[in-house]
Design brief:
The chain contains 15 helices and eleven strands. By secondary structure, the chain is α+β, with helices and mostly antiparallel strands. Strands 1-2-6-3-5-4 form a six-stranded mixed beta sheet, sandwiched between helices. Strand 4 and strand 5 form a beta hairpin. Helix 3 packs parallel to helix 8. The longest helix is centred in the N-terminal third of the chain and has 20 residues.
């Protein structure tokens, strides 16, 4: 159980404080309710660009890192489809340093053309390194485009193409900041050896005078159910062939999300999982195989990926995966196996609660989604899942018509094979 105190400032900013006296440290996590799903199709990558711009300095703190380091702390940030989060971990006695720095860049971000030019280049270079030049780096560009037709999850967080960030103008940047980086669009969580009222007083002191903004109403198009299988062959500078199967799955706050999470553990979490044990170790069809879910706020993806062993075709490897899926669809998971994956899920939750930073990030994310106290419901939900739940979800979700299949192959004599889209043979 993670107990916390919730406050709401007059400007609408929410503050959650969790007391942990087992550490001399404090985690400060400021999460904005903005991610790549809030971008325009012709201006993607902006949420990620802003993560970088926020470290370009503010009016009263031209260098963000030095004051944190002098206070004995460290800081970082991340962006995904749904949120952008800025966090610091520092001695609890120096917590106010984080309040000063974060409030100043919320109110007085340095809109400098030199900073924008530098960070645009950094982000574009990151795009090239991680997506264009890294083997399999553009996999999620393919899978997102194949699986989503109307929802903005159809482009990855880093952006659709680097040109969108390259062409970002100062007016675009100011507009994005004004729409999303306001106190009433943020959740602040402080975890550690702190006193709630003291933290509240700091929040009022440093954030209380920042005016609320007019936050755009998020009215995203719901992705319609996928009714036809999609298939694509991609070619690139990769050492080996690879296979990806992506299925639409429930949103993060739905109970069936937890059912799907356990299904992914059964198939691909660790050496005792079915795909690893049966297809990699016993049948030696793969050199690597994995299964995971995206965990996004809106309905996401359940992904199986693997690299076939030498001499094994992608078709044979895929057939073997479908055989394992068919067993999940037709048979109940044995009690012992179900208990094992539940215990593993519980252990993962407990381990995540050992870190004040993990608690701060998870509390903020659940509060953004609707209620931070949801963090205390997860263990009970996992324990309530039955073998019938697993069979039901496997039967409805893990079907060919809900699947986007990607074969990734090495280039042949520098010739790029055309993209293909077709229905799976039934």
């Amino acid at each position: 159980m993670i107990d916390f105190t919730r406050f709401t400032l007059d400007n609408g900013m929410r503050l959650l404080v969790h007391v942990d006296t087992n550490t001399p440290m404090a985690a400060f996590n400021l999460m904005y309710n903005v991610g790549s799903r809030d971008e325009s199709p012709d201006k993607t990558g902006f949420a990620h660009l802003f993560e970088h711009l926020m470290f370009g300095g503010s009016v009263n703190a031209p260098d963000f890192d030095d004051p944190i380091q002098l206070a004995g702390g460290e800081n970082n940030a991340f962006t995904n489809n749904d949120v952008t989060s800025y966090y610091q971990v520092l001695p609890a006695e120096n917590l106010e340093t984080a309040f000063w720095l974060e409030s100043d860049r919320m109110l007085n971000l340095n809109f400098d053309r030199k900073v924008l030019n530098v960070q645009r280049k950094v982000v574009v270079e990151e795009f090239k390194e991680t997506c264009l030049n890294e083997p399999y780096g553009d996999v999620f560009h393919h899978l997102s485009e194949m699986a989503y037709k109307v929802h903005p999850y159809r482009w990855p967080t880093i952006g659709l193409v680097p040109e969108h960030v390259e062409k970002a103008r100062m007016a675009d940047v100011r507009s994005f900041f004004g729409k999303h980086y306001r106190p009433n669009n943020a959740v602040l969580v402080v975890c550690g050896n702190v006193e709630p009222e003291t933290v509240r007083a700091m929040a009022v002191k440093w954030f209380g005078d920042i005016p609320a903004g007019k936050i755009p109403v998020r009215d995203l198009p719901a992705e319609p159910p996928q009714k036809d299988a999609v298939f694509r062959i991609a070619r690139g500078n990769v050492p080996n062939e690879a296979l990806y199967l992506a299925f639409h799955c429930p949103a993060r706050m739905e109970r069936d999300y937890y059912v799907v999470d356990l299904l992914s553990d059964i198939l691909g979490n660790g050496p005792s999982s079915r795909l690893y044990r049966r297809l990699l170790k016993e049948r030696e069809l793969f050199t690597s195989v994995d299964c995971y879910i995206t965990g996004s706020a809106d309905p996401g993806l359940f992904i199986i990926e693997g690299k076939p062993a030498e001499g094994v075709t992608l078709e044979k490897a895929e057939d073997a995966i479908w055989e394992e899926i068919e067993m999940l669809r037709k048979e109940f998971v044995p009690d012992r196996e179900l208990e094992k994956i539940k215990n593993k899920a519980e252990a993962t939750l407990i381990f995540s609660e050992l870190s004040v930073l993990n608690k701060a990030i998870n509390l903020a994310f659940f509060e953004i989604l609707g209620d931070g106290s949801w963090i205390n419901e997860e263990e009970g939900i996992y324990n309530s899942i039955t073998a019938a739940d697993l069979r039901r979800m496997a039967g409805s979700m893990l079907v060919p018509e809900n699947c986007s299949r990607l074969y990734y192959k090495p280039k042949e004599e520098q010739q790029v094979e055309p993209v293909a889209a077709e229905s799976l043979a039934q």
